Structure formats: C-alpha cells, structure tokens
Automatic annotation (TrEMBL):
It holds the Pfam family Glycos_transf_4. Its main location: membrane. Keywords: Cell membrane, Membrane, Transferase, Transmembrane, Transmembrane helix. It comes from Parapedobacter defluvii. One of its GO terms (molecular function) is transferase activity. It is found in: Cell membrane. The chain crosses the membrane at residues 6-30, 51-71, 77-94, 106-133, 139-158, 165-182, 188-206, 218-235, 255-278, 299-323, 329-349. InterPro entries: Glycosyl_transferase_4. This is Undecaprenyl-phosphate alpha-N-acetylglucosaminyl 1-phosphate transferase.
Length: 395
C-alpha cells in the first residue's frame, strides 16, 4: 500500500512544474510569434492573439511526475499509455503549429487508441446489462473501445472553447477518478489521475479569467486520452468478479457513474452532433452550438459560464454516487433527464429571445395596417360630420 503523502506529492509536484514552465512558454510564444489568432477564424471568441502552447507544460509536468512516482508493479502497462500519450500529443502539437488535415488527425487518434487497446488490453468487456448486453465479444470489444477512446479525445477538445472550462472540467474529472481509484486500492491509476490533476491546476493559474495562454489541441488531446484510459479501467476494474474484498471500494452502477463524471464533454458533444444532423449539416462542421456558446449568448462571462458547467458536472457526480444503488439503467435515465432538463432551459431562453426580437417586427407590421385604417375612419367621420353640419345650416 502506498502512502497518501505520495499521492499528495505527485499532485503538488506536477502543479509546481506547470507553474514554473508556463511563463517561459508564454515568452517563447511571443518571441517566435506562435499565437492562436482570432482573425483567422470568424467563430473565435477571444479578441487578442494568445499563445496556445499550454499543452506542452501540461504533458511535461504530468509525464515527468507520473514516471517519477509510479513504479512498474503499480502500473505494468504504463509504457503503452505513455507511448500513446506522446503520439497523440505530437499530433495535437502539429495541429496547433500548422493546421492538420481532419482525416490525418482521425487516423492518428485511431492508431493511438489501438496501441492501448491491443497491446495494453485496455478495453471494455462488459456493458453491465445495458441494452441487454453483458459480455462483449472480443471482435466487437476491440473496435468499440478504440472508437470510444477517439470519441472522448475529441469530446475534451470540443469543450476547449472558453477560458478555464477545459482545465476546470479536467481537474474535476481527474480528482474524482484519483479519489475513486485510491479507494479501490488501484494506486498506479490513482497516481496517474492526480498527476494530471496537478498539471491542469497549474495551467489554470494562467488560463482562468483573462487567459494568458491556451491549452491547444496538444493539451486537449492528451487530457482526453488519459481520461479515456482512466474511464475504461474504472469500468473494467469494478466488474463483480474483479472487486477487491473491501466494502468501501465497491462502486455500483459503474457505467452510469462514469458517464456522470464525464457528463459535460459527453453531453456537449452528443448535443452538437444531433443539432448538426437535424440541420442537415456535417457532424464535423464547427459551429457555435456548444453549451459554453449558448451560455455566453445569455450574457454570461467566460468565468460565469465555466462555473455553471463545472457546477453542473459536480452536481451530476454527486447525484450518481448518491443514487448508485438504484441500478445502472435507472441511474442512466436520471442522468439523461437531468442533462436534457438543462438543455431545455437553454432552449426556452432561445425561444424567449426569439419572441422578444419578433415582437417589435409584429408591432411595426400591425401599425402599418392599423394606422391607415384609423386615418381613413377619421376622414370618413369628419366628412359625415361636415355633411351633417351643412344640412343643418341649409335648414
């Protein structure tokens, strides 16, 4: 059993390295003119050129701390995890420095997923009765797990749209997994999670509020990949036959709890895909329909929108852990209903705004019809009164 102080050390050490590294990266970015320029894309929210090399500091501090603190017996497949993480980081860095073809990015993400799925055997083998499926045949398990990893990688990249959001959600997710793995006595995965949490916390010092640096695709891809590994292992290690005989470590309704932990990136990604398909657009076409965009449209600042979405994520985690005993299907329905309720509130706001904008138009159109009728009626009345007065004068 490892000491709790080693977990705290990995968290703080990773955070300190990031805090130390980022100012140098910001200075380097200005010297080499390596910016995310909002003038190059109309839908960009930020107004000023900002360095997007934050992922370099996050990966460096995370990888160094994890390699320093995790011994081979705690995480025997760590070599495949770090090899895949380095690959996906390089793909993201290439995309940050010079736009990469979407098909090449997808291919690289798939190769990254296949490394850990096939060589490290990190894959889903059971759906816990969802859709009536218990065990997953290996022929389906390998490609399904690979696609799931690719989905989570892109889901975390898609929420990187406003200052502080990706970092805050990643911090919440990593700390939650770290805590749960520690309770399960899976100390290698716990150290992996808290090392990532510390790196992200250090990054938030320069990204929250008025951002001095962005995470970039390199950081978002790396975080998404590590989180996908943690999520799959969390589901697999809690299968009934693999539970350790410690009552406190038993987590029920594991797939639903995992979805609750990742609710913001998962729900946001599924939401925008459905909206794009309904509108007849490609699901891969960028737009402003993400949850953080909708919150900004209500008048919120970046910080306020981040707080709302982060609070929602924490609420869903608390709800899932509190009601985990009700069953996987039932808990999934509860999570889905809650998420759809939030989406409905945003939809009602959009409807209210549309009605508010339409009312002046209706008033103007009605005025164009009513005012001429009123003037005509007045002319007729005046003419009749004049004729009546003339008759009275003649009499």
């Amino acid at each position: 059993m490892i000491d709790i102080y080693l977990v705290l050390f990995s968290f703080l050490f990773s955070c300190v390295i990031t805090l130390y590294a980022i100012p140098s990266l910001i200075k380097l970015a200005y010297q080499k003119r390596l910016f995310d320029d909002p003038a190059l894309e109309e839908r960009k929210i930020h107004k000023y050129r900002t360095p997007n090399l934050g992922g370099i500091a996050v990966l460096t501090s995370f990888a160094f701390t994890a390699c320093l603190c995790i011994s081979g017996n705690l995480l025997p497949y760590a070599n495949y995890v770090f090899a895949s993480g380095l690959l996906i980081f390089l793909v993201g860095l290439k995309d940050d420095l010079a736009a990469l073809n979407p098909y090449k990015k997808f291919l690289a993400q798939t190769v990254t997923a296949l490394i850990v799925v096939y060589f490290a055997d990190i894959r889903l083998t059971s759906l816990y009765g969802i859709f009536g499926i218990q065990e997953i045949h290996p022929v389906i398990s390998y490609p399904f797990s690979s696609l799931l990893i690719v989905f989570v990688i892109n889901a975390f990249n898609l929420i990187d749209g406003i200052n502080g959001l990706l970092g805050t959600i990643s911090l919440i997710v990593s700390l939650t997994f770290g805590y749960l793995f520690f309770r399960m006595q899976e100390y290698g995965l716990a150290l992996l999670a808290v090392s990532m949490a510390g790196a992200v916390l250090g990054f938030l010092r320069y990204n929250a509020g008025k951002a001095r640096i962005f995470m970039g695709d390199a950081g978002a891809y790396t975080i998404g990949f590590i989180v996908s590994v943690l999520a799959i292992q969390f589901i697999e290690l809690n299968k009934p036959q693999q539970l350790v005989p410690v009552t406190d470590s038993v987590i029920q309704s594991v797939p639903a709890v995992t979805i609750a932990i990742l609710i913001v990136p998962i729900f946001d990604t599924l939401r925008v895909i459905v909206i794009r398909l309904v509108q007849g657009k490609s699901p891969f076409m960028a737009d402003r329909n993400h949850l953080h965009h909708r919150l900004l449209d209500t008048g919120m600042s970046h910080t306020q929108a981040t707080i709302v979405l982060s609070s929602f994520n924490v609420l869903m985690i608390g709800t899932a852990l509190t009601f985990q005993q009700i069953g996987t299907i039932e808990l999934l329905l509860l999570i889905a209903i809650t998420a759809l309720l939030m989406n409905t509130m945003l939809w009602l706001y959009d409807v209210r705004q549309a009605i508010g904008q339409a009312q002046p138009l209706l008033v103007n159109e009605d005025s164009e019809k009513i005012y001429p009728l009123r003037d005509h009626a007045r002319e007729v009345a005046e003419e009749a009164l004049q004729q009546y007065e003339e008759k009275q004068h003649q009499n």
